[in-house]
Amino acid sequence: MTDFPSEEYPTFEWSPLVKTIVFIIYGVIIIFSLVGNTIVIFVILRCKPMQSITNLFITNLAVSDLLMSLVAAPFTPISSFSNTWVLPQFLCKLLGFTMAVSVYVSTLSSTAIALDRYMVIVHPFIRKMQNWMCGVIIAAIWAIATLISLPLAIYQTTTFDPIENDTICTESWPSSKSRRIFTILHFVFQFVAPSIVISFCYFYVSRLLRNRRQQKLGSRFRNTQKQDLEVRRHNKTNR
Fold this sequence. Notes:
- It is a single chain.
- By secondary structure, the chain is mainly alpha-helical.
- It has a single domain (16-225), classed as Rhodopsin 7-helix transmembrane proteins (Rhopdopsin 7-helix transmembrane proteins).
- It has helices at residues 16-46, 53-72, 76-81, 89-122, 131-155, 176-237; strands at 156-161, 166-171.
- A hairpin with a 4-residue loop joins strand 1 (156-161) and strand 2 (166-171).
């Protein structure tokens, strides 16, 4: 049996300039995110008149962005530029889980905002959502986001890759079937379902507002015609 010489593949290395630029960009994004979202949260929670249902959901969006900026964003370029996992093992589980929770909270909060706008504009005579109900929905959003993202915290782990001869952070599922099921559910609940709900809500809202605008313009046009007719009649009478 012939032994073939082992072939070593060169490892791609980012240039120091690219790394510096990326770290600077990430740093600027993190700073702006921290400052901007903190201001949003402070203003809405501090000012009572600002605490509308929509603004409370926006506050929830800001909190999820802060979570991403504080936990996930600072370590993303480090893990991306390293050929091996150089961070602590618990961060391997925490980063993927945190990013998934943050994205889920943002998506579900945007969906809740769309549903609230739909109910207020399309069905104005139905009782408006109260602040306590909004708080319950926000708590449910975080609970759902945590539960759906929990498999990432369970199955994300560091392992040794014999091909790359490095320690990597990857998902280690019990079977490929369970991973496919999670991926499909993840895609449906994080993107497909919210996109359908948001599109439906804003489609009907925009259609209703467009119809109202057309009715208003038509009514204004008819009133103008009526006024012109009255003026003509008045002028004929005074001749």
